[in-house]
Design a protein that fits this description.
This protein has 349 residues and is of the alpha/beta class. The protein is 41% helix and 22% strand. The protein is built from 17 helices and 13 strands. The strands form 3 sheets. It has a 6-stranded mixed sheet with strand order 6-7-8-3-9-10, with helices on both faces. The longest helix has 18 residues. The protein is globular, with a radius of gyration of 23 Å.
Length: 349
């Protein structure tokens, strides 16, 4: 039985315009986003969103520009008010919160990392990193101490007394991450947090986030338009199009089993060998009787397996996790997994 979700979004709609409640009647009657704009001059931002976000996991919400991903994340801390629906955090519907409860949630339960670093230029790096404590009224010594602690965790020890303009873009984003961590909030909202960075720096930030997450087990909601980034970071992946959820689930499963031609197109250019893991295509232990050609880890990429096998499709490996055999991988299955499945093909089968 699954634990109750940390965040649960239920039947969430957002319509932008002068009469959103009236427009809801049209949407519920089947009017499309395009028709709503053309006939009623209203924009359908979100349509019947239902997503569970589990504690200690990274939920990545992705889609192209205009898909509604940034609109969705701003509903979690009520920077945007919905037209209809519910947003539950720790078992409470935040749409019922009064001003005091909402302020408390934003101060202590949720922190946010922005695409634009939003650092205060007249404050030192340590003061910027400890800003959440400043908002809570802590002393300057406590603010700076917290800032220094988390700057060290993100690899910026020694930069505490610098000012933002003295740091590179990647370093400034590390300060933004330290600021979110210093708030000690359970939930981190990250809206396109790394998209303004150069590719190599962006990769470093992704690796840093995953490294920190191993220790901190935060509930992270990460917005991106980049599928490679989504597949790397996500425990749970939600793909939006025109304000609705096209498909959601474990990223490896979505890559292997796209439910919609839109998802097919989305994943068609991905380097599957670099992204897919052995655990996603292994078979049951009992499926192979006889000798094997060695052991591989369940989380190894298929690219790694191709390398150690020399591309020999006749080899079979024992799949191991934490010292125990959990499956078998036949190289012929690996080759089949590298060919994207078509929705029409699976429907016919």
């Amino acid at each position: 039985m699954n634990a109750a979700p940390k965040i649960a979004i239920r039947n969430l709609y957002k319509i932008f315009g002068t009469r959103p409640e009236a427009a809801m009647e049209n949407v519920r009657a089947g009017m499309s986003k395009t028709e709503l704009l053309e006939q009623k001059s209203h924009v359908l931002g979100l349509q019947d969103i239902n997503v569970d976000m589990q504690a200690g996991e990274i939920t990545v919400i992705m889609g192209l520009s205009g898909s509604g991903k940034s609109t969705l994340i701003r509903h979690l801390n009520r920077l945007i008010e919905p037209t209809a629906g519910e947003v539950w955090v720790n078992g409470q519907n935040v749409l019922n919160y009064d001003t005091r409860c909402l302020r408390e949630m934003r101060l202590n339960t949720m922190s946010m990392v922005f695409q634009k670093f939003a650092l205060l230029p007249h404050k030192t790096v340590a003061e910027n990193a400890g800003m959440a404590l400043a908002v809570r009224g802590n002393s300057k010594d406590e603010i700076v101490a917290a800032g220094k602690k988390w700057l060290a965790r993100v690899g910026l020890a020694g930069y505490e007394d610098r000012y933002p303009h003295q740091l590179s873009g990647g370093m400034q984003q590390r300060v933004g991450l330290a600021r979110a961590l210093a708030s000690d909030s359970e939930i981190m909202l990250m809206d396109e947090a790394f998209s303004a960075l150069d590719p190599l720096i962006r990769t470093d930030m992704q690796d840093l986030l995953l490294e920190l997450q191993k220790d901190l087990n935060k509930t992270i909601i990460f917005i991106t338009h980049d599928l490679d980034e989504a597949l790397k970071l996500a425990d749970h992946l939600v793909i939006l199009k025109d304000g609705y959820v096209v498909q959601q689930g474990e990223p490896q499963h979505i890559l292997l089993h796209p439910d919609d031609p839109y998802i097919e197109d989305f994943v068609s250019d991905i380097n599957r060998a670099r992204v897919l893991r052995v655990r996603s295509i292994m078979t049951d232990v009992a499926s192979h009787q006889g000798e094997t050609d060695g052991n591989v880890d369940a989380n190894d990429t298929l690219e790694h397996l191709i390398s150690i096998s020399g591309g020999d499709t006749y080899k079979t490996y024992r799949v191991m996790s934490e010292g125990k055999q959990v499956g078998v991988l036949n190289m012929k299955d690996l080759v089949r997994a590298l060919v994207p499945a078509r929705v029409e093909q699976r429907t016919v089968m």
